[in-house]
Amino acid sequence: MTIFQFIQKPQLRGAEMFACQLSDHLEKLGHKVILIALFPGNETLPFKGEIVLLNRPISKRWTDYDGWKEIAELIKQHQPDIIQCNAGDTLKYAVLSKLLFKWNQPIIARNASMVSLYIKNPIIKWINKQLYKRVTSIISVSEHSKKDLNTLFPETTSKSIVIPVGIENIAFQEVAWKGGENARFHIIHVGGFTFEKNHEGLLRIFKQFLEKQPESHLHLLGDGPKRIEIELLSKTLGIAEKVSFYGFVSNPTDYIHKANALVLPSIIEGLPGVLLEAMYVKTITIAYDVGGISEIISNNTTGFLVPKNDEEAFVASMLKAVESDNKNLITNANQQVLQKFSNDYLAKAFEKVYFSQKST
């Protein structure tokens, strides 16, 4: 098969990274994959195959006739068997191109978040309803994400399935901390500085944690629009010397492997791959019970699962993570990832969906 994988732009974030990894595995299975980025971006995507950069102006994403036409021309040129849209505007671009230029290839949408938390406006809801009507299959990253989508758009229920995110067989190397080298406990968070990741709550939690374990250090990997605000908050809370800001790093798994615990107090999540990476490298995880996280973490069995916004309970779980013997928990988590979340296995699940749609 020839498969088009649409992504937002060249950036090293969850949806784009998984699309690249999936595409590599699909090519190993003998398929031709073309990765198509809609908008400009500065990062080099980790995909070994063909990449098409459309560089469409994001300001015109609702009226980009030339962009929709360019997609139709690519489809005419390559004759793909499947079009997969990976989050954001990719579905809009594919559906509008298909409606205007009358190509016939099936569109598969990937649902990687909790859409009900983003789609509030009735007009936007109606538009998305029209888009979902025109896809042949919707692949959600978790049962929780699938249920959320089906509740908001009941007409999607019959064509929805779940295939989670996965991990690569990661080789990690020794790295040096950028602060707190002599700390007893190193706590790490990996994620963009956006409201969903709840860095404000994380700093409050860490301040309480320091009262019990003062020889600890928090390492924040990632970048984003709220970074400066969070840096200022760390100073306001009086913990700036205990917090290091790394910006974007290309090798977060190396740091995760080095840490004593990974924390994820997000208020919105789909199925975060960073938890799987931590489990793979045998670093204990603590996270709020949001989105599909409970499908990864079983409390006190594969990690620590905390009720959303219960900062006191989050601190208690962090203390348990670093002060107790959690060898069995870590082993359970690692075995779960190896058995259920390997990209080798998940690529075959996607391939099965593609074949089923191609034959219809």
Short description:
This protein has 360 residues and is α/β, with parallel strands linked by helices.
Query: Could you name the CATH class of the largest domain?
Result: Alpha Beta
Count of DSSP-assigned helices: 12
**CATH homology group of the largest domain:** Glycogen Phosphorylase B
Low-confidence stretches: none
Strands across the major sheet, in which order?
3-2-1-4-5-6-7
Describe the structure in your own words.
By secondary structure, the protein is α/β, with parallel strands linked by helices. The chain has two domains: 2-166 and 342-358, 3-Layer(aba) Sandwich (Rossmann fold); 185-340, 3-Layer(aba) Sandwich (Rossmann fold). It has helices spanning 14-28, 65-78, 90-101, 122-133, 143-152, 199-212, 227-236, 252-258, 273-280, 311-323, 327-340, 343-358; strands at 2-7, 32-37, 50-53, 82-86, 107-111, 137-140, 160-162, 185-190, 216-221, 243-247, 261-264, 284-288, 304-306. The strands form two sheets. Strands 3-2-1-4-5-6-7 form a seven-stranded parallel β-sheet, sandwiched between helices. The protein has a six-stranded parallel β-sheet with strand order 10-9-8-11-12-13, with helices on both faces. α1 (14-28) links the parallel β1 and β2 (32-37). The chain starts with a strand and ends with a helix. The mean pLDDT is 94.
Secondary-structure blueprint of this entry?
Blueprint: E1 2-7, H1 14-28, E2 32-37, E3 50-53, H2 65-78, E4 82-86, H3 90-101, E5 107-111, H4 122-133, E6 137-140, H5 143-152, E7 160-162, E8 185-190, H6 199-212, E9 216-221, H7 227-236, E10 243-247, H8 252-258, E11 261-264, H9 273-280, E12 284-288, E13 304-306, H10 311-323, H11 327-340, H12 343-358
Parallel strand pairs: 1-2, 1-4, 2-3, 4-5, 5-6, 6-7, 8-9, 8-11, 9-10, 11-12, 12-13
Helix pairs in contact: 1-12, 2-3, 6-10, 9-11
